[in-house]
Design brief:
The chain is α/β, with parallel strands linked by helices and 404 residues long. It folds into two domains: 201 residues, Rossmann fold (3-Layer(aba) Sandwich); 157 residues, Rossmann fold (3-Layer(aba) Sandwich), CATH 3.40.50.10490.
């Protein structure tokens, strides 16, 4: 992972604070103990997830992953980033009846399995999704058949979901108590669905080794963010030059938003897909209120697709004939960085290299570590989410009040 800073200088005091936060994170001298994700190379978990995921993939045309927030966003992001078998579908992240109607319609003539990921099992959205998918499994395969096609990842045997697994004979994989949802992609919560999707999860996890060896870049990114935040920037815009990074942007928004947005503080995370969003949000980025800075992901392209020549050059693009699309993308990236700097937008450029399972693992672990360091530098606990509980408690009160 490489990093380039455009249009500003990192504050030396903030850099010193970020280095101290990184040391505290590694040594465990922070209030939270939710740091089990720092060294996620548990070979036993990788082997078990690989075997069970392969079994579900062989049994099924579709594997439905039930979860919300960190219980599905990491897996969804990686499944979009990397080539896969196309079997994964996601539920439990919505209460839309229309969505479930469409999903159940798709499953009518397909064999399917279900993976449910929930730390407790009591959250409304995945809880309802689990009920719907469990009912569909039993209706199709009976109770015995459902047992062979359903697995749950939950915190413990005594959790609500753990109790359901014990009572019904469903396979249960443990979600470690010291790993929160948004940091869980390298645990069974992310690895089991990804293995069922045909992704090389061993290589994905191996990428975390490179991340852990990249202290300077981790600290630099965290310090750059906090330098700009203290200078008055309120939004971080994550932009990427590949369309299959859209769901990585969704994962990033949860990771940073839930980790830093508390105590009246925090950068608001936004994500854009380039070049598509240059023709929508590009206008605001260039000329709107100067609230933001940009973090730009620049992958090294490796495709051989070139721009064809056109007889007559009636679209005036023959200047690009024979040029690789990845090179056109690179030129446009340089133009955008230059334009945004002229428009007063500082740019942090992250360069993960060529996109593979290992580099995807490195990138995500890098983001998780930088997020933790950034939150600690800001002075918040990057591992709790008290604001998320607010709507849950109010929803429970309304359900009870309305006799639902």
């Amino acid at each position: 992972m490489k990093i380039n800073i455009h249009g500003f200088e990192i504050s030396e005091p903030v850099l010193s604070e970020a280095n101290k936060a990184y040391n505290n994170l590694l040594t465990g001298t922070i209030p939270s103990k939710m740091t089990g994700w720092l060294a996620p190379r548990d070979n036993e978990v990788v082997v078990r997830c690989t075997e069970l995921g392969a079994k579900f993939a062989e049994l099924s045309d579709v594997v439905v992953v039930v979860g919300i927030g960190g219980s599905y966003l990491g897996a969804k992001a990686v499944a979009e980033l990397l080539p896969n078998n196309g079997k994964l579908r996601f539920a439990g992240n919505t209460l839309s009846g229309a969505y479930y109607e469409q999903l159940l319609r798709e499953l009518e003539d397909k064999d399917f399995s279900v993976i449910v990921v929930s730390k407790s099992g009591g959250t409304v959205e995945p809880g309802v999704g689990f009920r719907i998918m469990e009912q569909a499994l039993i209706a199709r395969y009976g109770t015995t058949g459902a047992c062979s096609r359903l697995a749950a990842v939950t915190s413990s045997e005594s959790s609500l979901l753990g109790n359901i697994c014990s009572a019904n004979g469903y396979t249960r994989l443990a979600l470690p108590e010291n790993i929160g949802g948004r940091y869980s992609v390298f645990s069974a919560a992310g690895l089991l669905p990804l293995a069922a999707g045909g992704i090389d999860i061993a290589s994905l996890v191996n990428g975390t080794t490179a991340s852990n060896a990249n202290r300077e870049t981790i600290v630099t990114y965290a310090a750059a963010r906090q330098t700009l935040y203290r200078a008055g920037k309120k939004l971080e815009v994550l932009s990427a030059w590949e369309p299959n990074v859209r769901w990585l942007g969704e994962w990033y928004k949860q990771l940073f938003g839930e980790s830093e947005g508390k105590d009246g503080r925090g950068l608001f995370p936004v994500s854009l897909e380039l070049t598509a969003d240059l023709h929508s949000m590009g206008q605001y980025m260039q000329d709107g209120e100067r609230l933001m800075f940009e973090t730009m992901l620049s992958f090294n392209g490796s495709a051989d697709i070139t721009v064809p020549a056109r007889r007559g050059d009636d679209d005036k693009l023959n200047m690009l004939s024979g040029v690789k699309l990845d090179e056109v993308n690179r030129i446009l990236k340089e133009a955008v960085i230059s334009a945004h700097l002229d428009g007063g937008i500082p740019v942090i450029e992250l360069i993960p290299g060529r996109l593979t399972a290992e580099s995807a693992g490195e990138l995500m672990h890098f983001m998780m570590t930088s997020c933790a360091v950034s939150g600690l530098t800001m002075g918040v606990d990057p591992f709790d989410q008290p604001g998320v509980e607010a709507y849950k408690s109010k929803a429970k009160a309304l359900f009870a009040h309305q006799n639902i």
